[in-house]
Amino acid sequence: MKNRILVAAILIFLFAMLLYFWWQPGAAKKSTAEEKNRLQAAALAAALAGQNSNTVALIASNFARVQPVPEAVGAAAVAIAPAGPASPLQFTNFAPATVLQNVGRAIRQYGGMFGGNPVGTNPEITAALAGNNPRHISFLNADAGMRVDDRGEMIDPWGTPYFFHQLSGHEMEIRSAGQDRKMWTFDDLVAK
User: CATH number of 96-191: 3.20.20.105, 3.40.50.170, 3.30.700.10, 3.90.1700.10?
Assistant: First the structure.
């Protein structure tokens, strides 16, 4: 019930914003690019129906960044602009440090159930956390920001694979390359 109310509220907000920008009193005829943005916003609002609350919140936060598309760019233009060149990918509404803590929690839960951390490379550890373990239990939670790329590696919010370093059988250091996407630099995020 709570999710439906949230979805309805966001849809009403998006519709009101669409109406506001469409029928501004005394406004001149909108450009073709602005019309494309309105159509994309309407499609976005329609896509929100049936999504879970995390997805709705993420899409709504991205909607706030809709930018006018220059005519010269044409149909290939993207209406939702990234926050900047070093911004995290928009697949989670959690801070990157929170996602890293969630990965650490999943590893600790695995260790508590099986008496030690998963071992190996990133794809091997990811497979063990995803259910390739003796009890076939998945410890990965997409709603907590944990994502796996097409190579089977767990990636940070910037799309870079995490580096897992075994400190002992029960302690592991997890490193995210951070905003610059380069490992072992000043902006790396580290959790144990």
Answer: 3.30.700.10
